[in-house]
Write the structure tokens for this entry.
Amino acid sequence: MYFCPFLDFMMNSCTLKTNQNSFVKKFILWQILSFLVLFILNSNAAKAAHSHFAVDTTSTQNKTIKNAQVQIKIKLEQTELSFEITRGTIKYKVTAVNEIGKISFTNSKSVLSYLGNEFTRVDYILHKSDFLLFPVQDQAGRLVFYRVSLNLENGSSTSALPYLTMKNQSALFNQKMVKLLVYEQIKQENTRTKKLYYITNFNIYHLDKSEKENYREFYSTEKFVGVPSNLSPQALKIRMMDLLIDFMPNSTIEHYFR
């Protein structure tokens, strides 16, 4: 409607012959209509782009996990991760140190937690009221676990460093002995012979120690010791125990993981 007076003016301004006048009028009308269509399309595209950008920059996620002793509220906003812990009347905050950029929550149940013959696949470890071992996922698909202490003083504030990183790995957590066995198999290529070979790593984290002690054992072998992904929880535990025989005496294995 805004362009109607302009159209009348343009039509009335043409003083050519009848056939030429008709052609000019049609040409001018076509130019104006094309301009209107392009203007509307560009306007809608700009609005859509602005709306999408706004959604991306306001993505804040929250998660709450708890047991009988403690409640933990977890807040994630792009690269900021924090934990608000409430234990009875005690409240404090732990902020994660992030040097890996944008992170996200994950539902990857990469840890097999067990007590005796009771097995559960979990995406985090909440051990009584002692500590939380909580993973986030980076843009490369790795799981970065933070260990958060659940025994701090009321009103305090502290930070947590990344405790361990996993990618395409399996982990076994013994609830009784508070040990975490992480299994990793890496395929590499010999740059000289161009042949593939495997490196298999085992990390044993002694989570009953304090985070500052960060006590762990590391073993590695240059051979393929595959663990099929479709193994049952019981079979996975037996298989991983069998693999440790190459590195540890059976009495130690019994003590740590049976």
Notes: The mean pLDDT is 80. The radius of gyration is 31 Å. The longest helix spans residues 18-56. Helices lie at 4-12, 18-56, 233-244, 250-257.
